[in-house]
Each structure stands twice: as structure tokens, then as C-alpha cells.
Amino acid sequence: MNNSLSIEEIFNLVRDTLNRAGSSSHQSEAVADTISRAERDGSVSHGLFRLPGYFASLKSGKVNPNPNPNLSQITKAVLKCDGDRSYAPLVHKKFLNNLVNVSKDIGVGILSINRVAHFASLWPETEILAENGLVGIACTSYMPAVAPFGASKKLYGTNPISFAWPRKNENPIVFDMATSSLALGDVQIAARDGHDLPIGTGIDKNGNDTTDPKKILEGMLLPFGGYKGSHFAMMIEFLAGPLVGETTSFITKENNINDGGPPLGGQFIMALAPEIISDLNDWDKNAEPFIEKLSSFDGVRIPGKRRHDNRNNIEKVEVNSELLNKIYSLK
Ligand code: NDP
Ligand code: PYC
User: Considering 41, 176, 186, 284, which one is annotated as catalytic?
Assistant: First the structure.
């Protein structure tokens, strides 16, 4: 089997697979765009690896095959979206532009999203905001997979947060990270590929340290950075849950159909216009020297650069053959 695919072939594979599961072509293409861009950038745990889960939640009926997400403007700054049980990339494709317009108009905008299934990286949404000259911040919660600092029971999701800083003549700076020591997807890939993980990544079901990803999957992940990361994970439970009118991870799990796909939940996205907030046209005059200094330090890697470099010279992507077989056999 040829497991070397171009980005266009990946896009088509995702679109056709989701169409086969009954999804509208609008929704299939939005997810195909997100997955193919993840593969292009080397975000392997949130590329094709997620396709069986996306397929499963369409087949089970948890995710709406033909959703019609809608947007209401609550105040000048707050946009509220009912996702209509869609996949998040469809909501982003339809409504991020509204968030851009609001934020450019009054300096700040919030997109508060309900009833959406988020199974992707978050950089696609913050990067678009930064490409439009805005600071972007996004977070979403998940289902319990992470023990709060000090505990050996899971309560927090892997709760990612992404931040993007716009630059006038360069690619934006974008970080996107789980608040667990590692994304669950990367633990699943390590288990599949038989790689050990560093001590401190997670603990087994009895609360003992382990390097075995299978034992971490039976047990739980730990937050990044000890109690400080734990509080970030807690913050995201509030921001992507109650603040947007949604459940926190443990109730999300109680409501979830266990079909292998993502649960329905919320997402919080905020955009900030630097020229309005700083009241300066040359709002980047203090940022650029800082970025230059940071980049000059030996050993420093600017987040987002790896992905931008990857996409510059990508021709084909090698896809795990077991995964490809699984995708081809999805019914
Ligand atoms: P990583 O730990 O791989 O990377 C986190 C961030 O740190 C990235 O911005 C990365 O930049 C940067 N980075 C990585 N290594 C270095 C380094 N050596 N020096 C400086 N910066 C570095 O990601 P995670 O495992 O935490 O998360 C992976 C993905 O999982 C994310 O995209 C996240 O959104 C997604 N996720 C999604 C969830 C959901 O519910 N939808 C839940 C949890 C995670 P770069 O991108 O440039 O490599
Ligand atoms: O990798 O932790 C993860 C994750 C959860 C939902 C989507 N990705």
C-alpha cells in the first residue's frame, strides 16, 4: 500500500470518508481542511489520527451530519454561537470572520461557542486571527484525563490553550498546548508505536509514576508544570465551560455517548486589536525588538516556526500504514 500522500490527497480522503459517514459536504470540507493542514504542519496527533473518531461520532448520531450553526450578537463585543452539534472547524469557517470584524471595530471580541465537538488543534483558529492583525486566544475543555495537582483521580480535560501574536511582516507567533504534560493523542500514539514517555507525564491507575503510555491511558495524565499548570487547566474548565454556558469536563463525560469520538462541549475564543488597545499605529514597536532578542538566544525555539517551516517544503506525508488501513476500512 502507498502510504505517502500529498496534502490534496489527504484533504480528499478526509472529505470522502466523512461524506460516506453522512456528513454534509460543507462540514466534511471544513474538517478536511483542518486535518490536511495539521498533516502539512506535522501536527500528527491531530491530523488523520483523529479521522476514525470523527467518523464514529457521525455514525453514532452524536454529531449532526447536516448542522446549521447559528450566530447571535449579544453585545457589541460578544458573539454567541450555537454549534448545532457540529464539528468545530465548521463553526470557525462560518464565523471567525465575524469575530475579526467586531474586534477590529471596537478593539475586542469574544466568540462564545456551545454544542460543538472539538477534536483538533487550536492553532488554526488563533493563527487566522493573527493573520488578520489581531491577538488571538482560544481554549476548549475535554473529558477527564488529568489529575489536579496533588490528586490521583482525574478531573480536568487535557484542556488546550492557544495564543497568537500578529506581526506586520512576519509569520505570527503561535503557541498551542495541552495543559496536561502531553496531549492525550500523543500518549495514544506512543502506546501504538511502543515508545516510553518521561517520568512526570502521567501516573498509573494506582497513582504510581510510570513511563508506560498504556498504563497512563488506564490511569491518568499529570498537568504540565506542577500546581501552576494545574491552575491553568482549572481556568480552562471555567472559560470553555460555565463562561460560555457549557459543562465542565466531568459533566461533559457524563453526557457523552462513548463512541470513540469527541464529546459535545464549548469553546472560548477572544480577539484583541493591538492598534486600538495600545492606541498606536506602530503598536509593534516594542514587540519586534523583544522578538528579535528572544530569537537571538541560543537554544530558543519560537513557537509556530516549526510548523511554518514544515509547510514551506512539504510534498508528501508518510502516514502510519495501520492508521491508513483503518481509515480505508471505515464503514
Ligand atoms: P506540544 O507540547 O508538542 O507543543 C506545545 C507548544 O510548544 C507548541 O506551540 C509548540 O510549537 C511549542 N514547542 C514544542 N516544543 C518546543 C520546544 N522545544 N521549544 C519551544 N517551544 C516548543 O503540544 P501538546 O502536546 O501540548 O499539544 C498538541 C496539540 O494537541 C495542540 O495542538 C493542542 O491544541 C491539541 N489538543 C487538542 C485538544 C482538544 O480538546 N481539541 C486537547 C488537547 C490537546 P510548534 O507548534 O511550533 O511545535
Ligand atoms: O490530544 O488530548 C488530546 C485531545 C483531546 C481532544 C482532542 N485532542
Answer: 186
